[in-house]
Amino acid sequence: MTQKSKKVPFSCLRIALLIFLILLMPVPVYSKEESNTLLPDISAKSAILIEANIGQILFQKNPNLRCFPASTTKILTALVALSKEKDLGKLFKVSKNAIMIEPGSSSYYLNEGEIISFQDALYAMLLISANDAANVIAENISGSIQEFVKEMNQFALNIGAKDSHFVNPNGLHNPQHYTTAYDLSLIARQAYKNETLRRIVSTVEYKITTASMHKKPDWQIIYNINKLLRKNSKYYYPYANGMKTGYTAQAKRCLIASAKKDDIDLIAVILSSDDAFADAIKLFDYGFNNFRKEELFKQNQIIGKVMVDKVNKKWIDGYIKSSFYVLKNKNTNSKTQDITYHITFLKDIKPPINKDTVIGNVYIYSAGNLLSSIPILSYESYIPQSKVTSVIHTVKKGFVKGMKFLFDFLLAVVGLIFIFAIATIIRLRRKRVKLRLRSTKTIDFSSFPNKKLK
User: Fold this and answer.
1) Helix, strand or coil for residue 266?
2) Annotated binding site: which residue ranges?
3) Which residues are substrate-binding (predicted)?
4) Among all residues, which ones are annotated catalytic?
5) Where do the H-state alpha helices sit in 163-256?
6) Quick one: how many helices (H) and strands (E) in the chain?
7) Is there a contact between 229 and 240 (Cβ–Cβ < 8 Å)?
């Protein structure tokens, strides 16, 4: 064997060994969801990110953990006050009790007997977190802080915030003053729907024109302490459009923040954080980068039908009047935010029914949480026939059915008679033929005499 022929098998052996070693090497495997969607790493003990209009949950961290909300409480205070008083120009008188707040806490330093408008009090409370302004609002709206707090708790319960309890309108620490990130998101959604409240919390600078007792002119100008809105802040976020900060030693950094980018509106709730603004930015970036808007129901879409008149067997189509959108994760493999819905029609719907009467609801869920309830409307009007008309209609219907039956019966009888007649004719003809055949005899010409003709 030549030297060259000896090297060939040795070379093949080395290649095979190299391939074997490569196959033994560990290969990192990444799921598609992990590679495309990194969940935000935040310092908050509890947080939630939702779509602002329908409440769809996009991210949550201990959302039902009870926490102290600090001054984020003031969003609820504003909601309750605005639900009871529409006149922003109404003047409120400052009482001695209203200005008795914790020393060193946020304040506009109102004086006893001073007059401040409802609007100015709202701006002071929401922009610079003035605790005295919150007390003034509560007293003038409900007569006392205690009565106002009762209404705060009732308001929270009415919107589904069932794991919260408030004891004051400003959020100063009290062991019995608590809420959850989920409950605060429900409150924040209500605030986002309120145009007056949205306008106030999105304001960066405001001039107070009342409550000028013992104050220098520069005190009239107040600036929003929400750093997401301040262009000179390192936390400035261009898509942020408001809400409320909060802090106490026990609550740590708290924040309700809202933001809008293109056609997506988000709300972030941060509780018990070391850096609430940084946490909010991470949550907003996660939401805007990983979710897109998708139409779940089209405008005027027929969703089903329901029987509205059993006597006349009348069905009416139900439809959804407006389009309904949800957010879908751009990572198609993600199943954490699946949207489901359940259609329910009202029972025992009785006519008359006008067009666009509510005849049912579509309940939409995300991750097991109820997002929204959409009314199903009747697609047409329906007025039942009167009893007399109904009887006439029934008789007419019965008569028509009877006549049809009679006609079918007579037609069948005529058909049978015709068939019987044809069969009889055929039978008679056959009988005649047989009779003719029997009467005909064979003539034997040989029996006749053989005579020659002349």
Assistant:
1) strand
2) 244
3) 244
4) 71, 74, 129
5) 181-193, 195-201
6) 10, 16
7) yes
What is the predicted pLDDT for the residue at 14? Answer: 57
Report how far residue 75's alpha carbon sits from residue 118's, in angstroms, rounded to the nearest whole number: 15
Task: Provide the b/e sequence for 73-101 (b: ≥16 CB within 10 Å).
Answer: bbbbbbbbbbeeeeeeeeebebbeebbeb
* Amino acid in the structure at residue 421: A
The residue-averaged pLDDT of 57-74 equals 98
CATH number at residue 342: 2.60.410.10
Q: Are 101 and 135 in contact (CB under 8 A)?
A: yes
- 171 and 134 share one domain: yes
pLDDT at 454 over 80: no
Statement: residue 108 has pLDDT above 80: yes
The count of other CB atoms within 10 Å of the CB of residue 59 is 22
Same domain, 144 and 120: yes
Residues in binding site for substrate: 244
pLDDT digits (tens, 9 = 90+) for 300-332: 999 999 999 888 889 999 999 999 999 999 886
Q: For residue 21, name the pLDDT band (cuts at 50, 70, 90).
A: very low
pLDDT at 387: 52
Residue 451 burial by Cβ neighbours in a 10 Å radius (0-12, 13-18, 19+): exposed
Does position 451 have pLDDT exceeding 70, yes or no?
no
Q: What's at 198, amino acid-wise?
A: R
Q: Are 279 and 304 in the same domain? A: no
Burial of 115 (0-12, 13-18, 19+ CB in 10 A): middle
Contacts 24+ apart (CB under 8 A), 437-442: none
Domain of residue 325 covers: 298-378
**pLDDT tens-digit readout, 110-151:** 999 999 999 999 999 999 999 999 999 999 999 999 999 999
Query: Which residue's entry shows tokens 């209404």?
Result: 151
Which three-class secondary structure string do you get for 5-45?
Answer: HHHHHHHHHHHHHHHHHHHHCCCCCCCHHHHHCCCCCCCCC
Task: Tell me the angle at which helices 73-84 and 118-127 cross, rounded to the nearest 10 degrees.
Answer: 170
8 Å CB contact between 129 and 201: no
pLDDT at 350: 86
Q: Which of 333, 349, 378 is the last residue of a domain?
A: 378
Statement: residue 79 has pLDDT above 70:
yes
User: What are residue 437's DSSP bridge partners?
Assistant: none
Say what the pTM is.
0.74
**Cα–Cα distance for residue pair 325/338, rounded to 1 Å:** 13
- Which of 263, 291, 319 is at the close of a domain? 291
Q: Break the chain down into helix, strand, coil percent, rounded to 5.
A: 40, 25, 35
| Residue 77 token pair | 């205070």
